[in-house]
Design brief:
By secondary structure, this protein is an all-alpha fold. It is elongated and about 80 Å long. The chain has ten helices and no strands. The chain folds into two domains: 122 residues; 97 residues, no CATH class.
Length: 237
């Protein structure tokens, strides 16, 4: 029977990719943007950053290699043991930097491939030129979806929309605010069917709206009590 391999930390790092995984990139970096044009834009931003870092990495690699050559020339011109020891230490440090640069380039190339896949997908499945021509309208769609999602998560988590998200929704034009609110209710209804939700009723057989706003039945009973009605009808009493 073959002996089971004993892995060390270095062995694991050599076989498991560094940086973000393909799944992480596509689900938590790209898909998190909610709308196709924002997803495409995010992928383009991520590509631009990594390609620029690769160019900087290539420059840094050349700079460190030049320093290595300079130190080797200095070593060839001296026989002083202390100077040689110092040069050897500098040489070791520069070689370590080259290893780190190479590792970082491997990581960036790996992540770039995932983002290139996203661009390829959009080229194959979308009319990108049309999306760009509609970017102003699609910007509204993005903010509706984003704020609706955030408000829905507020409702699912706490039973109310936070002041910040509600204020942001109300900053939009009235008709867009109403669309955003409807999207929020729709998403909350979907979540309430599968996730325990505080202060929300469960889905009814008739598919009625799940979120109950306004005063509770107990508050209604107090509000509509004979004593309250008498006070309302006779304010001077």
């Amino acid at each position: 029977m073959q002996d089971k391999k004993v892995y060390k930390a270095k062995d694991i790092l050599n076989v498991i990719q560094k940086g973000m995984s393909d799944f992480q990139i596509k689900n938590f970096v790209v898909n998190a943007q909610l709308t196709p044009i924002k997803q495409l834009h995010q992928a383009a931003i991520e590509i631009s950053v990594r390609e620029e870092n690769l160019r900087k990495g290539d420059f840094e690699d050349k700079k460190q290699r030049l320093k290595i050559e300079v130190i080797k020339q200095k070593m060839s011109r001296t026989s002083d043991s202390l100077e040689l020891a110092e040069y050897e230490l500098e040489l070791h440090q520069l070689e370590e930097k080259l290893v780190a640069i190479a590792d970082e380039k491997v990581r960036m190339h790996y992540e770039l491939q995932s983002f290139y896949d996203v661009i390829d997908y959009f080229n194959d499945n979308y009319d990108i030129e049309q999306m760009i021509s509609m970017k102003d309208t699609l910007e509204i769609d993005y903010w509706v979806k984003r704020l609706a999602k955030q408000a829905s998560l507020d409702l699912v988590s706490t039973g109310r929309i936070s002041n910040g998200n509600l204020s942001a929704m109300m900053d939009m034009p009235d008709e867009v605010f109403q669309i955003c609110l409807n999207e929020c209710y729709k998403l909350t209804n979907q979540l309430a069917k599968v996730v325990p939700v505080p202060a929300l009723s469960g889905p009814g057989d008739d598919g009625e709206f799940l979120i109950k706003f306004g005063p509770s039945e107990a508050q209604n009973a107090i509000t509509q009590s004979p004593e309250k009605q008498a006070i309302d009808n006779n304010p001077a009493a």
